[in-house]
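Help needed: design a sequence for this.
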């Protein structure tokens, strides 16, 4: 399974097509809309987290591109909101590089941004969404600036 975050730019001709619904139906993709600005008959921008079998994620992107949607993978920089984190440890088992680990004997969950590859696997697993994709808002703003209203 792969979890990836993409910034999608929809042309105004196709922005009202039910494409995201088709991702679930045709490619068995789970999705999470992190941010969206899409109105009928206007170009739109969406930050979308896709989770599914790698091959199907790729096919779902090909499907979107067949509607002239530009899909660009977001090189995620991950931050932890320490105010939200309640040290449950759920994220430590999923991090493939040990950037989230339990420090013993304190049993404190440590986040090491130096080790983090930005894979975003920890984002959906955190029950309080303490793991955040930090550049989403700036990437979204940049994309919004390019949208012709
Ligand atoms: S899953 Fe979330 S709340 Fe739990 S330790 Fe990790 S970041 Fe903190
Ligand atoms: S984004 Fe990936 S590498 Fe970074 S802390 Fe989360 S699971 Fe680990």
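Sure. Designed sequence:
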């Amino acid at each position: 399974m792969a979890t990836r975050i993409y910034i999608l730019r929809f042309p105004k001709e196709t922005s009202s097509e039910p494409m995201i619904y088709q991702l679930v139906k045709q490619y068995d993709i789970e999705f999470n809309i992190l941010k969206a600005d899409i109105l009928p008959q206007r170009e739109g921008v969406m930050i979308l987290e896709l989770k599914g079998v790698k091959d199907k994620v790729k096919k779902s992107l090909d499907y979107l591109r067949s509607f002239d949607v530009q899909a660009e993978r977001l090189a995620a920089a991950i931050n932890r909101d320490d105010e939200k984190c309640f040290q449950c440890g759920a994220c430590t088992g999923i991090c493939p590089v040990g950037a989230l680990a339990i420090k013993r004997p304190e049993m404190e969950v440590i986040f090491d941004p130096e080790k983090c590859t930005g894979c975003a696997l920890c984002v959906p697993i955190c029950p309080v969404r303490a793991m955040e994709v930090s550049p989403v808002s700036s990437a979204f703003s940049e994309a919004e600036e390019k949208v012709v209203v």
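Confidence is low (pLDDT under 50) at residues 143-149.
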